[in-house]
Specification:
Blueprint lengths: L1 E5 L47 H14 L14 H30 L5 H5 L1 H11 L14 E4 L5 H11 L6 H5 L29 H20 L11 E6 H5 L1 H12 L5 E6 L3 E2 L2 E2 L8 H8 L2 E5 L6 H13 L5 E5 L11 H10 L12 H31 L1 H11 L21 E2 H12 L6 E5 L3 H4 L19 E3 L4 H13 L5 E7 L3 H14 L4 E5 L16 H8 L5 E3 L4 H13 L5 E4 L4 E2 L15 E6 L9 E4 L4 H15 L1
Parallel strand pairs: 1-18, 2-3, 3-4, 4-8, 7-8, 10-11, 10-12, 12-13, 13-15, 14-15
Antiparallel strand pairs: 1-17, 5-6, 9-16
Helix pairs in contact: 1-2, 2-4, 2-5, 4-5, 4-11, 4-13, 7-9, 7-17, 9-17, 13-14, 15-20, 17-18
Protein name: transketolase
Keywords: Calcium, Magnesium, Metal-binding, Thiamine pyrophosphate, Transferase
Enzyme class: transferase
Amino acid sequence: MAIISSLLLQPLSVPTPTLQNNRNHRFRIGLTPPPRNSLRANHAPIGKPANLSKDYKLSWLQELKHAFQPQLSNQNLDADDEEDNEFFQELVDMQCVDNVRMLIVDAVQTAKAGHSGMPLGMAEVGYILYRHVMRYNPRNPKWFNRDRFVLSAGHGCLLQYICLHLAGFQSVQLEDLQRLCKLGSRTPGHPENVVTDGIEVTTAPLGKSVANAVGLALAEAHSAARFNKPDAVIVDHRTFCIMGDGCVMEGISHEAASLAAHWKLNKLTLIYDDNLNTIDGATSLAFSEDISARFKALGWNTITVDDTHNDMEAIKNALLSAFRETEKPTFIREGTSKAHHGTFDEKDVKKMRRKVNWSDREPFHVIPMIYREMQIQTEYGERMEKEWHSRLCYYQTKYPQEFVEFKILLDGGLLPGWESSLPKFPTSDPVDATQGYSEKCLNQLAKVLPGLIRGSADLATSNKAYLHGHEDFSQPNSPWGCNIRYGVREHAMAGISNGIALRGSGLIPFAATFLVFSDYMKNSIRLSALSHAGVIYIMTHDSIGLGEDGPTHQPAVEQLAGLRAVPRLLVFWPADGNETAGAYKVVVANRNVPSLIALSRQKVAANLEGTSRASVEIGGYIVSDNSEDKLPDIILIGTGSELCLCEESAKMLRVWFH
């Protein structure tokens, strides 16, 4: 008779302003013109433009004459006129946004697929973020202190792809825009961080990435509190997120937004594309909530921008307000016009081209000067990265001990020999629940893994998932704390943990709750696998042995079966302390896949006879066998807390058969 421990299963643009009192203007996809002084060029943080050189203006003049019917005169080229600088930059920004919109139309028309509404409606916002606000370096997309951008409304990914291309990211060439939604392309129908450099998180199911953005912002606040010094700030990036009507309807966005305000994540900016339109029709069919009032009640800094199409200055001022906010995250309600959500026919395309003076352009045309315009911001990002490296060198000299820890985290967070810290459980140890053995493993690992950060959904005591000797994460009291209290928000916990894991800062998040509540989290767990996010899910109370709470809290067969079916998710159900330690060795070592450890509340042996810590990574192995190389009469397969039942049953059966 053979007994097999089976604990792992891994299936493996707007119209032109007037010139010189000439009020004639064109429409930009049906919109009205902004006032003459409505825009300013800037770098992050947002401010007025530097003087524009005459050469710069001359390089743009021909394109602007083509786009805008009123003729620009030589007096518009006075490089010393500050108002003229702002006005000229306004025209440049408009022309750039027009080009972005026409690339959207061409890509959707070519692919005969894709979601065009959100990209068309938010073209100004996307352009402003990438041209005037965010710090990034296309030559080093993984620069640690870059600003993060998350597109929770992932169906609008075409807007981000175009911005990445124009900004100079090698991951999105013009040919990639022409292959939108094609199998194997670098421009899939929703953003995937493992496919396209410049994409921070994989987004698709609406609302999930609002939680991802909160996780990114939390990780920044935590790292900044741990490492920044008054004379050496090495962590100070911001997180920007665009969400749509569907995102705010999903409950996870509310859970995550509540936590963001509670944690005072002031470097998080959430931009709401409120276009009053969903797939079934107007949002009024099923939605009448005042979202700004909701976020204000949660504790956010709330701003309303009524019409970015006609006043890009308004969204810039809103973003400037977000930069100035020191205690609250910022919510910007951006009231875009209704936009088409499908593909276009030839008549639609011709009409749009005519309205923006684009009729004589070939499909996928990019004005050469737009690349140079976007390069202004990317060169700014390159300078910021060089300055950051200079600060880091100073930091290394002035604060060598802190630098060593920071460098360990940048390199992945694993010290050589960390495995030796895992406790050993001899057979003489008193019996305990596997969640108790897990607690011992976690607290030993916390001594050698500086990036270990714990989270639990109001069950830290029940899950035995608390890092003793560490403070709770809280702003402003203890943002360096390594224990995160999520409250009763399982889904947000999973989404936020994904953001923490994907920030690239060496933090190793684990999220703990009851196994039966994994159903709340399933979609975000699946996204962990798709995103290669190394989150560790700790799921306790694994069976009917949990106690008297009844079937609503007792996991049935479908929980583990469903979780084990998720590709790239490592699922462990250890039988004793020995296998629990073995499971932690595997999950910590595998930083690019999520893992789940199911643990018992009832007590089991510390070291069940025949179990093997080293064999855990195999996924299943023989615990005991008395068949003497013959075909066994009976094979008992057990896993988790059920393995001891198999062992006792085998002993009884061997006596009876003997």
